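Researcher: Here's a chain I'd like modeled. Treat it as a single chain, no partners, no ligands.
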Amino acid sequence: MQTQSNMTSTTQIPPASTGFQVARLTEKGLVVKGCDKIDKIIGELNLVDVKIHSWQLGRVIRRDYYLITNNLFFNLRRGNGVTRIREALTQLSEEADVLENMARRFEEKLPKEGIDPVQMRVVSDEAEILLSALTRVDYAVSKLLLSDLAELIEENLRPFYAAYDHLKYQIIGQSPASRSQKEAEKNNS
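Model: Modeled as a single isolated chain. C-alpha cells:
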C-alpha cells in the first residue's frame, strides 16, 4: 500500500442513484460506497492505494470498508467496546496471517499489479489494521485460486470470514449469522 495525498480520477455518484450514501467510481467503473462518511472525518488526508487482486475480497473492501471504519472511528472515540473491538481486530489479523502463510508458496503464480487499484482513506491505526488484513487476504486468495488449493478456498476462508463477521458485529452490531443467511438466500434463488 502506498500513501497518496490526492485522489486519482474518480467520479462522484450522487446519492439518489446509489441510495442514501455517496459513492465514487474508480477508473475501471467499480463503485466504492460510503465515501461521504469518511470525508466528514478526515477529508482527503491519508489516502492509500489498494491493489485489488480478487473479486471476493475486492467486493468486501469496496462495499464495507468505509461503513466499518466510520463506525470504528466513532466507537473508539467514544470509548464504546474498545477492548472487544481491538481483540476482534487482532483475531482478524491472525486469520489473515494464516491465509497469507498458506499462500506464500504460490508467490510465483500471481503478478503484483492487481486487477484494479482503488484509493481508500485510513482514519485511524485500527482502520489501517483492518485494511491491511483485507488486502493481505485478497492477495492470498488470488494466489490460492491459481493453485492446487483452489477447490478448498471457501473452506480456508471460513475462519477469516467468521473473524470478519465478529468484528462487524462488535463495531456495527450486524449479526454474524447474516452472511450465512445471505448466502443461503442467494443459493435458494
